[in-house]
Design goal:
317 residues, mainly alpha, Growth Hormone, Chain: A, 3-stranded antiparallel beta sheet, 11 helices, 3 strands
Length: 317
């Protein structure tokens, strides 16, 4: 042995480095999870996921209420089915144009704070519209502006909420979490328009006041989520797992833009069908479109094999 101070002597191997009084395992032990990753708890007991789910349910329901309430209000103000359809199409086109920038924005800002700001803005905006309706100051251009801004805030809220999901649940729970998220979306899409019609029957301002309350409560639930949601320097579970954390918002809205691009024309087409045909023709046309979409979802193999396509490169050759 050559002379060297005992405390400084080190014996190194390919896997370990041993120093007097300390042992450092370079590759011998399993890597420790970063402290900011979510802990493994059942979905039903995950308070952060519950708060996010409730907040999204309320936000989605409020948005779906508006999908019927806005055209009904425009129709009551102008007596024009085409103009009511135009307002819906302008909103949809605005959302389509915002998909990519909104996704990029959600990747650059704190996602929880982004959701909170969107909820506060929507709650204040809808409350103001309700006041204008009650005081008979609402006009169709005002309704159009509120509709577009409220929808734009939703376009920013949604990718932020989706991109925050992996910070709330563990990787192995993404499928279960996204299934619960999809179920919430379908409940809101089914109940929201019907609820919007019922509320509009009670009073023109009622559905918009209800929207304001739903966004205010969503603000309260999202505010209770704890964790780190800032950017790190269907199908959706696979997308979230395979997409880098700093790009999840952009990828989410890119997928949504491609999937829902043609939906921007739906309100205008519906207005034209009702104006020049009948309500029955409009319902029949959209029912046929949904039937074709359902068949395509069952036939196209890519929708069923997304997970295997992602996992196959990881398998040993």
């Amino acid at each position: 042995m050559t002379g060297c101070p005992a405390p400084a002597c080190t014996v190194s191997t390919s896997t370990t480095s041993v120093r007097l009084g300390t042992v450092s395992a370079v590759n011998a032990s399993e890597p420790q999870a970063p402290p900011d990753l979510p802990r493994q708890v059942p979905i039903r007991r995950n308070n952060g996921f519950r708060m996010l789910w409730i907040g999204q349910l309320l936000s989605d329901t409020g948005s779906e209420i508006g999908l019927l309430a806005y055209p009904l209000l425009i129709l009551a103000l102008t007596h024009s089915a085409v103009l009511a359809g135009v307002v819906g199409t302008v909103r949809a086109i605005t959302l389509l144009c915002l998909q990519l920038p909104a996704g990029a924005l959600s990747d650059r800002l704190d996602r929880r704070l982004t959701m909170i700001v969107c909820d506060v803005m929507r709650a204040a905006l809808l409350a103001l519209l309700a006041v204008l309706i009650v005081t008979h100051l609402a006009t169709w251009p005002v309704v159009l502006i509120v509709c577009v801004v409220e929808g734009g805030a939703g376009a920013i809220f949604n990718p932020a909420a989706t991109a925050a999901l992996p910070a709330i649940v563990t990787d192995g729970q993404l499928e279960e979490a996204w299934a619960a998220t999809e179920g919430r979306t379908y409940v809101a899409s089914l109940a929201g328009p019907a609820l919007g019609g019922v509320l509009f029957g009670l009073g023109r301002a009622v559905p918009f006041l209800t929207d304001a309350v739903s966004y205010a409560v969503s603000f309260g639930t999202v505010s209770r989520i704890r964790g780190r949601f800032g950017p790190r320097a269907a199908l959706f579970a696979v997308m979230l797992r395979s997409t880098p954390a700093e790009m999840r918002g952009r990828v989410t809205n890119t997928v949504l833009m491609v999937a829902t691009g043609l939906a921007a024309l739906a309100p205008l087409v519906a207005g034209l069908l009702v104006q020049h045909g009948s309500g029955s023709w409009a319902v029949g046309a959209f029912a046929a479109t949904m039937a074709v979409a359902a068949v395509l979802c069952l036939v196209l193999p890519g929708l069923r094999e997304a997970e295997s396509a992602v996992e196959s490169p990881r398998r040993p050759s």
